[in-house]
UniProtKB/TrEMBL annotation, chain A:
It is found in: Nucleus. Belongs to the ORC3 family. This is Origin recognition complex subunit 3 N-terminus-domain-containing protein. GO terms for molecular function: DNA replication origin binding. CDD domains: Orc3. Residues 25-336 form the Origin recognition complex subunit 3 N-terminal domain. Residues 629-655 are annotated as: Disordered. Pfam families: ORC3_N, WHD_ORC.
From TrEMBL, chain B:
Residues 73-236 form the Origin recognition complex subunit 2 RecA-like domain. It comes from the Eukaryota. This is Origin recognition complex subunit 2. Component of the origin recognition complex (ORC). The lineage of its organism: Eukaryota, Fungi, Dikarya, Basidiomycota, Agaricomycotina. GO terms for molecular function: DNA replication origin binding.
Length: 705, 396
């Protein structure tokens, strides 16, 4: 096959393999099950679809939430752009260049997609004028020099036809240079003429991504050039900043002379952590929204750690949750997540009653058995006539139970938060008031929120009368707003709150009411805030404490390379490991790396080579000791891979052959040394400083414990 | 603190080692004077020619210990699914990952068009990748204009476009390429699987680019303008030797692996380093006069090298540093005339022409003087003297 030879050919820089849609035997991209011992054939495909659906539902919810977070920022940016060049301070000596800085550390960069969409399409219905602006995006990679930056800006606009038609070709010979801002000016005049826009309402908006990564000198020049051409070119800059609004990066980096040219407006984004907490709360702890699977405390912990320590980006949050979904649906039983996952009961039994599906049925049966879904006594007698239908119906029951439990759990958790917030607002002292929202979530999911709500209920018992009324009112309102099915389930606590509410109206003793209310709430929380692991078959709908595959997102390539060098045997499966002395099967690069770790900052290559030679010769001697002489001719051969049973004294045939052989051996060692050295170099372990002849410098100073 | 050598340590079960902070180790090393011997590798060890090197490695492959990490190709489907879910994959870990990734490329060619990029190749350029992508039917518009990254991103942003899989070997060798693909990586129909080898390769990517995701929050039908990678990281430790990746390294120099890129840029990219055999072939084909001229130049160069500071002789990391020992054109002309090799300028230039064409003699303007040209043979001292011996032997 030609492709094979091309792929192996190192002289090719790129190889193209055409789309081969001829055979579709292996094309359905469903990976094999991780747990074949309890899976069935169609399971993977079904789980794959279920996963997509579950994640899609979760993603949609979070996108809505993020979108609503973006909305006010987008609104204010668009407003600022519209107001630029019209609403200016009177009496300025020269026009100022409008600059809008958006602190976008927490959000995803799609915020700017949204802004540019709004700016390019925005129509002001009231005045009936089409106000579409032009937006171009500038990335740090385009901006190494001022020429490059100006070229990016100018071509970003000019590549669009002024009349809105098809791209037109400009003759390079008849046109201004692509970096010349006069070209942009000419283009803008043409646009205004074509649109009959005498007031020059369209703005030229430039979004500068990752502003901190741009070279300040280049940016300074660019701003100076641009400010010479306003207001006849209505340029507006939007800077995407990752650093917090104060201390301001722009003011700290650029000189006053440049800042005087700009009119900087800030559009801060809400605090990163708060948005994260809100999104988690509204997605997984909302009384109304029901995610298909519930995430466990370990995932929440990882999300928070990643967000606070690494990148506070909502994109990262989405990726983590998507991975959590993908991981959860590796489990064969997760195929049962949605109701009637396997189709109607008839289809389901047909699907599951194939020999192929027996392991899956077995596992399912064991699970159902272990849970208390079927009473043990009854089970002992009736398992013989248990049918697939029966099994599936008990799964259905478990699903309803879990769903309801999770829902009631969420409602109760929200009530805890409400009570907590009330107490904080009214300045009651709360132990551990520094616990964040995710902390509380994790505690609740683990069923360890007892101390928190116990404490809150004790405050409720001691509430002064004035606050108690507000409190009862709030709790009452809270239960007014829960969904109907929750109301039906929680009639007991609701009626109790109702009673408390009525008692107030009858102006009974406040202390009595607060005592009662505290106890009732405490009972209620105790009943509802329990670990979801206690619900039968919980592991189908709940990720629980399964560890999050964090190395997919936050890997440690360095540790992996070092581990590969120091303990390569750990990567090899057991069969290939032979040896009491583990040094005997170290590859060359690991031998060399040993010397590297033992040496000082600078390494003399010759010394390194010598140690390598000594090491290899030691190994060679050890191998030779256990070697069988080679038959009758008895000639000396390079150490063979055969390991002998008899110990044999080195044979005395050390003639010219041996001398030649010795030389060959040295050449070989040298070649191996150079290869290993260059491999270490390739991996970045060596720096050639040139300070000392044939010395190299270490770049890694980690030392294994 | 008792010193425990790593040989006596029990084999650790965990793959991720616990390491002492490297800054402590760094300061310990930096505070003490480095004691190394005064031996110079390049003086004491004669470098091997590529043929010797390859032959030696072929012999070594029988008893040098190479470990093989078991690999199950069922991972391909899992990776393909991760790509399908909107992530790109980055493979790290010790060992050449080229073989596995090439197999993966063949696997995904059933799902879409594939372009494999050998980023470790010294002369790889963005243009090469675009030329390969242009072979996907429909990407190249009817006009003859060259394909740009924007056009590619736009084409594969359409929901009805085919899928494109980019497999990139050793992405970290070409930061330019890494930057370029950041504008393709978030396109919904472009999927990237790349490998990195260098220890500090993750520094190539900024935090915001790492976290970026495919698909916009706000509307799925409009292509996003964002750049980023959306990597999922996979540890693919193969422990395989980097034979292919180091094809372009100079095996005769200890810094051959790191200077390979720079070297190829200055010399003729086709020829690579001059070898003894190549020189012998050229010398066998030229006239006796030309041979004499060559040995004259070689003798002078060796003489210069001997007379100069010993330590400097082979500190040269690449053959071009032999320039110090070269001869100016005028000096060579005088010598040649005295030896009756060439009596006038034209004749000398004609003789030199053949050598220059084959890279046997290199010339450059001498630094410091204006206009005077310096000529030298880009061979290291030992090789050159061996070559001269051979030449003289044949002549005799």
């Amino acid at each position: 096959m030609a492709v094979d030879t091309d792929l192996e050919d190192v002289n090719q820089t790129t190889v193209y393999i055409p789309f081969d849609d001829s055979d579709d035997a292996n094309t359905n991209g469903v990976p094999p099950s991780l747990f074949p011992e309890r899976d069935f054939h169609q399971g993977c495909q079904l789980r794959f679809q279920t996963c997509k659906a579950a994640w899609g539902k979760c993603l949609k919810r979070m996108q809505e939430l993020i979108h609503s977070l973006h909305a006010p920022v987008v609104e204010s940016v668009v407003e600022q752009v519209k107001k630029s060049y019209t609403d200016e301070l009177p009496g300025l000596p020269y026009p100022e260049l409008p600059v809008i800085s958006v602190t976008s550390s927490s959000t995803s960069s799609s915020l700017f997609d949204e802004i540019s969409f709004r700016l390019e399409e925005s129509t002001d219905e009231l005045f009936d004028d089409l106000n579409d602006h032009f937006v171009t995006h500038v990335f740090p990679s385009d901006c190494a020099t001022i020429t490059g930056t100006m070229k990016t800006i100018v071509t970003g606009f000019v590549s669009r036809s002024p009349t809105g038609g098809q791209d037109m070709k400009r003759k390079p010979s008849a046109s201004l240079a692509a970096y010349d801002i006069a070209l942009l000016e000419a283009w803008y005049r043409a646009v205004c003429n074509a649109r009959d826009d005498r007031h020059h309402r369209s703005r030229l908006v430039i979004v500068m991504h990752d502003f901190e990564q741009l070279e300040p000198q280049v940016v300074q020049d660019m701003f100076e050039i641009c400010s010479l051409h306003i207001p006849c070119l209505p340029l507006v800059f939007i800077l995407a900043l990752a650093s917090p609004p104060s201390p301001s990066y722009i003011r700290a980096t650029y000189p006053h002379s440049m800042l005087a040219l700009l009119r900087v407006r800030d559009c801060p984004f809400p605090l990163a952590e708060k948005s994260l907490h809100d999104i988690l709360l509204e997605t997984f702890f909302d009384p109304v929204f029901e995610p298909d699977i519930m995430i466990g405390p370990t995932t929440i912990d990882f999300v928070v750690e990643f967000f606070t320590r690494h990148t506070s980006s909502l994109d990262g949050l989405l990726s983590i949750l998507q991975l959590a979904h993908m991981k959860h649906f590796e489990e064969p039983l997760s195929v049962l997540v949605p109701a009637q996952a396997l189709g109607r009961s008839k289809d389901a039994s047909r699907l599951l009653l194939t020999p192929d599906a027996f392991p899956f049925l077995d596992a399912l049966f064991a699970q159902v058995h272990r849970s208390a879904l079927i009473a043990p006594v009854e089970h002992a007698t009736s398992w013989r006539n248990a049918t697939v239908d029966l099994l599936l119906s008990s799964v259905e029951t478990a699903r309803d139970t879990f769903r309801m439990c999770a829902k009631l759990f969420r409602v109760a958790f929200r009530l805890v938060l409400l009570v907590r917030r009330f107490m904080l607002v009214h300045e009651h002292k709360i132990v551990q008031s520094d616990q964040t929202m995710p902390d509380l979530m994790c505690l609740a999911l683990r069923g360890r929120l007892g101390s928190v709500y116990g404490h809150l209920c004790s405050i409720v018992r001691n509430l002064p009368a004035a606050q108690l009324e507000d409190f009862v009112q709030e709790v009452h309102d809270f239960f007014e707003n829960v969904p109907e099915d929750v109301k039906a389930e929680e009639d007991e606590v609701i009626s109790r709150v109702e009673t408390a509410y009525k008692m107030f109206c009858r102006e009974e003793n406040a202390q009595e009411i607060s005592d009662l209310l505290g106890n009732w709430l405490s009972d209620y929380f105790k009943l509802r805030i329990v670990a979801l692991e206690d619900v039968p078959l919980w592991d189908i709908w709940y990720t629980g404490s399964t560890p999050f595959p964090s190395e997919l997102i936050n890997p440690s390539p360095r540790a992996s390379i070092l581990a590969g060098l120091i303990h390569p045997q750990d990567y090899v499966s057991g069969e290939q490991r032979n040896g009491d002395d583990e040094d005997d099967d170290l590859p060359d690069i690991s031998i060399l790396f040993k010397g590297y770790l033992e040496s000082a900052k600078m390494i003399n290559v010759y010394d390194w080579f010598q140690s390598f030679v000594v090491f290899l010769e030691g190994r060679k001697r050890r191998v030779e000791k256990t070697r069988i002489p080679d038959g009758a001719d008895g000639t000396f051969r390079t150490p063979s891979r055969k390991k002998g049973k008899h110990k044999q004294v080195e044979d005395e045939v050390v003639g010219e052959d041996a001398g030649e052989d010795e030389e060959e051996w040295l050449v070989e060692v040298q070649a191996r040394f150079i290869r290993a050295l260059q491999e270490l170099d390739y991996l970045g372990f060596i720096k050639h400083t040139g300070r000392k002849v044939d010395h190299v410098m270490r770049t890694v100073f980690d030392s294994p414990e | 603190m008792p010193q425990t050598s790593s040989t006596t340590m029990p084999p650790t079960s965990s793959k991720n080692l616990k390491l002492t902070p490297s800054f402590d180790a760094y300061f310990t090393h930096a505070s003490s004077r480095t004691r190394t011997s005064t031996n110079v590798f390049s003086q004491r060890v004669v470098p091997l020619s590529p043929e010797e090197h390859n032959a030696a490695l072929a012999r070594a492959s029988v008893h040098a210990c190479t470990l093989q990490v078991p690999f199950d190709s069922s991972s391909f489907k899992r990776w393909a699914r991760e790509l399908d879910e909107g992530f790109n994959i980055l493979f790290y870990g010790l060992g050449s990952k080229r073989g596995i990734l090439n197999d993966f490329a063949k696997h995904v060619s059933k799902l879409g068009h594939v372009v494999v990029v050998n980023a470790f190749h010294p002369s790889v350029a963005m243009r090469d990748m675009l030329v390969s992508i242009a072979r996907v039917p429909g990407v190249q518009s009817t006009s003859t204009s060259t394909l740009t990254l924007e056009r590619v991103a736009e084409h594969f942003g359409n929901s009805d476009s085919p899928h494109l899989f980019l497999i990139i070997h050793s992405l970290d060798r070409s930061p330019k390429l890494a930057r370029a693909i950041s504008s393709l990586a978030l396109s919904p129909h472009i999927h990237i699987a790349a490998s990195i080898d260098r220890l500090n390769a993750p520094l190539l990517f900024s935090a915001s680019q790492l976290a970026a995701r495919k698909g916009s929050f706000f509307s799925s039908d409009r292509p996003t303008k964002n750049v980023g990678y959306s990597w999922l990281w996979h540890d693919l430790t193969t422990l395989a030797p980097y034979t292919t990746e180091l094809t372009f390294a100079d095996r005769t120099s200890i810094s051959g692996a790191s200077s390979s890129r720079a070297r190829v840029d200055i010399t003729n990219p086709i020829s690579g380093p001059l070898t003894e055999t190549a020189a012998m072939h050229v010398l066998a084909a030229v006239t006796a006069k030309a041979k004499k001229l060559f040995s004259l130049l070689a003798a002078k160069q060796l003489e210069n090298a001997d007379s100069s500071d010993v330590s400097e002789v082979n500190s040269a990391h690449n053959p071009h540093d032999q320039q110090h020992f070269g001869l100016t054109y005028d000096a060579l002309f005088t010598l040649a005339r005295d030896a009756f090799i060439a009596t006038n300028d034209t004749a000398l230039r004609a003789l030199l022409g053949e050598f220059r064409d084959h890279g046997l003699v290199v010339s450059a303007a001498q630094p410091g003087t204006s206009g005077s040209e310096v000529l030298w043979i880009p061979l290291r001292k030992e090789r050159l003297s061996k070559l001269v011996e051979n030449l003289d032997g044949n002549a005799a």
